[in-house]
Amino acid sequence: MYSYMLVNCSKCQTPLQLPPGAESIRCVICQAVTHVAVHSRYVPPPSNPTARPSPSTLAPPSPYNHAPPGPPPNQHGRKKAVIVGISYKYSRHELKGCINDAKCMRHLLMTKFQFPQDSILMLTEEETDPYRIPNKQNMRLALFWLVQGCQPGDSLLFHYSGHGSRQRNYNGDEADGYDETLCPLDFETQGMIVDDEINATIVRPLPHGVRLHAMIDACHSGTVLDLPFLCRMNRNGQYVWEDHRPRSGIWKGTNGGDVISLSGCDDDQTSADTSALSKITSTGAMTFCFIQAIERGHGTTYGSILNSMRTTIRNTGGNNLGGGDVVTSLIGMLLTGGSGVGGGLKQVGLSQSLH
Q1: Each residue of 85-141: pLDDT tens digit?
Q2: 103: closest CA among 330, 340, 344, 343?
Q3: What does residue 210 show for φ and ψ, rounded to 5 degrees?
Q4: Residue 178 phi/psi, 5° resolution?
Q5: CATH number of 79-354
Q6: What are the extents of the domains in the chain?
Q7: Coil, strand or helix: which one is 8?
Q8: Is 107 an annotated catalytic residue?
Q9: pLDDT, tens only, 259-317
Q10: Active site residue: 9, 104, 219, 289, which one?
Q11: In this protein, which residues make up the domain named Peptidase C14 caspase (predicted)?
Q12: Is 27 annotated in the active site?
């Protein structure tokens, strides 16, 4: 378990908690950034006076380092993934690219990160198994399945491409006053899946040595896992940590495991699917840019992935999408039922996190 330092916001005096090694934290209430001098922090002496401190106690957490801290999962650990793509076909909420996103992510996990096919639970409207239709009940069961029986060394992934929304929060746990939600296929009759439930299902039970990656390609998805800390990065690659712990004091972190969530947009923003990226069909902008970042060899750190994704989005406006051929070929192969991609996607450092 990691130790956390508590400081008061320099402006509104709200108690803030710092991730291990962080030198500043932003308050989500007043937006002030509070800096903490490195020398002012108490570091307990090692039990062995000759022992050197571990690197994780020396370096502040950075998206440009191999985050999260700690060794990568054991190579013999299991790999499990839940991939959800919902098109809401024949409804006024229809999306064009979500099932393409799901197929591309499954292909990427199987071919480049060695996820066994039978360890990937795919929920889309195209599935013939009624238990793999992405309705609310099936999505709940899939999330329970993802973390059920997980052990140190396991690598888990949750990818969601579909509608996201938000609703008024009444217990005071959200700084912006809203709970973020995912919208199952039947959300109009059965309701949405709220971030509190997602956190309780796949975040809080996660034991030490287990690593979960979540990719949420949806509107209002910034904090949909309700994680206690958020790393916000601007277009210049500068980042700042924010303390998102509920003011009630309830713990929204794991039981010792590591969770990293990449979101398509902030809590008050919307995401989109588009054909401007692949040129041949609609895809979720975030999912496409993530795969392209891996293909271009920018997957060494989370920071390099985010920078690459932002660059692709910015360049889209100027029609400067060079380098996307492999991803476009992958999408074309999936649409036509082919079995291979010429040249393949590059194997990159992110595999150390997914392995």
Answers
A1: 999 999 998 988 899 999 989 998 898 889 999 999 999 999 999 999 999 999 999
A2: 330
A3: -105, 140
A4: -130, 145
A5: 3.40.50.12660
A6: 1-39, 79-354
A7: strand
A8: no
A9: 988 876 555 545 554 444 444 345 567 888 888 887 788 888 888 888 888 887 777 65
A10: 219
A11: 78-315
A12: no
